[in-house]
Amino acid sequence: MKNKIHKYDFLVVGAGLIGSIAALALVQKKNKVLVIDKKNNTPIDNRTLAVNANSTDFLKKIGVWNNIKSNPQPINKIVIKDDISTHSLIFEDEIEPMGNVIFNKELFKISRQKLENLKILKTNVNLETNEISPNKNILINGQKYLFKKIIFSIGKNVTTNQRHKSVIFDQQHFSYVGFFKHIKLHNDTAYEFFTSTGPLAVLPAPDINKNKSTFIYSSKKKINKIQLESLIKKKINNSHGKLTFDKSISKFPIVPHITKNNDNFIYIGDSLKSIHPVAGQGWNLGIKDIQTLCKLLDSHSIDAKNFNKIYYSRRILESTIYLTFTSALNYLYESKISLNKRVIDLGFKILKNIKLVRNLFIKQAMGRVNLTD
Ligand SMILES: Cc1cc2nc3c(=O)[nH]c(=O)nc-3n(C[C@H](O)[C@H](O)[C@H](O)COP(=O)(O)OP(=O)(O)OC[C@H]3O[C@@H](n4cnc5c(N)ncnc54)[C@H](O)[C@@H]3O)c2cc1C
Question: Do the Cβ atoms of 53 and 366 come closer than 8 Å?
Fold first, then answer.
């Protein structure tokens, strides 16, 4: 039937690690959802994802967690060190692991497979953003569709399209990611080193032998493989013993930004904001976007006036706090001003000595603090 109009609740544009999960969560809430992505194939993404405690629970709730076969690696402790303070900070929770490390590509494959099983995914669909509006006919693969709500989950691509208004914090940083084996066991511990050229995170990688880790080093300075390996060795030789690095290192651009409200659309994941990976929280914040959206559907009709505005107002505070905090942290370490060193030292002392403040940071990192709803 040529003139048939397919009516849906939601169109999710972008089936990445957030868009796919959002679609599954919305379907679980009995919404009619269609997902489109401009690409077809699984991207080659060798990164790991530090999934915090809140996001782990959410993946369990929507039936994704049990499909992960490659032994999610718990993070029981995070050790934070820098070149300024003499002591290290230790973050650990008395009740549960702070999070789990999984492979991006496995989560991607599982969630995409679920969308395909539900027959709600259309790939190789690249609509010009100007063609997309809620409650107006949209032509997809020759068929007419009508959507009540349009969710943008196209990652950082949102910053390159005039229709979306983003404020970009241009830091010109890149992240370098790789893996290595080590002689000593990692003891389910993650490390964050703040160096004067940029932060270096070392996370235990999923591997039953507990002798494999991954690193994420972010900097605006160019660094080659030999320099990077020597930096990592210097920082963790004592804790991890002799290291053997994998051959390849991947490089990712960092585009910290926040998107302004647009009453026509709902932005989630890296389309709403993307932050420096220093805190390992970008995707976890995207899960909070989805949770807020689902919660809003419990209290408001999808047709409610101001629905998109209320959603945005509930996500803007936490997004802005993370964006500002991670950007400021990098600035403090990168700049050579001595006042900054004193600010950092004071921050370290407060976190080390005041348990209440430290616990607040720990619960926030675990996604257990709700700043808005
Ligand atoms: C080095 C590094 C390490 C990180 N580690 C962590 C971590 O440990 N924990 C954590 O929480 N976060 C981490 N992050 C952040 C995390 O990777 C991102 O927040 C997350 O992947 C964003 O997912 P997304 O779905 O919003 O965007 P993307 O993964 O970029 O997905 C966007 C999707 O939209 C599609 N698309 C783009 N344009 C269009 C269009 N016009 N039409 C249709 N489809 C389109 C793309 O093909 C893609 O499938 C890290 C980031 C970096 C750089």
Answer: yes
The CB-side HSE value for 36 (13 A sphere, CA atoms) comes to 20
* 82 CB within 6 A, ligand 1: no
Span 141-164, pLDDT tens digits: 999 999 999 999 999 999 988 889
* 64 touches ligand 1 (CB under 6 Å): no
CB 211 less than 6 A from any atom of ligand 1? no
Give residue 43 CA to ligand 1 midpoint distance, Å.
11
Residue to mutate, 47, 203, 271, 289, ligand 1, most ligand atoms under 8 Å from C-beta: 47
| Domain architecture of the chain: domains with CATH | 5-46+104-170+256-349 (3.50.50.60), 174-253 (3.30.9.10)
Cα–Cα distance for residue pair 273/18, rounded to 1 Å = 12
Question: Closest residue (by CA) to atom 31 of ligand 1?
Answer: 16
**318 and 371 Cβ atoms separated by less than 8 Å:** yes
What SS3 state is found at 334?
helix
* Per-residue pLDDT reduced to its tens digit, 318-372: 999 999 999 888 888 888 787 888 888 889 899 999 999 999 999 999 999 987 6
Residue 49: both structure tokens together: 């994802």
Structure pTM? 0.96
Give the three-class secondary structure for 49: strand
CA nearest to 154, candidates 49, 257, 296: 257
Q: Across-strand partners of 145?
A: 6, 138
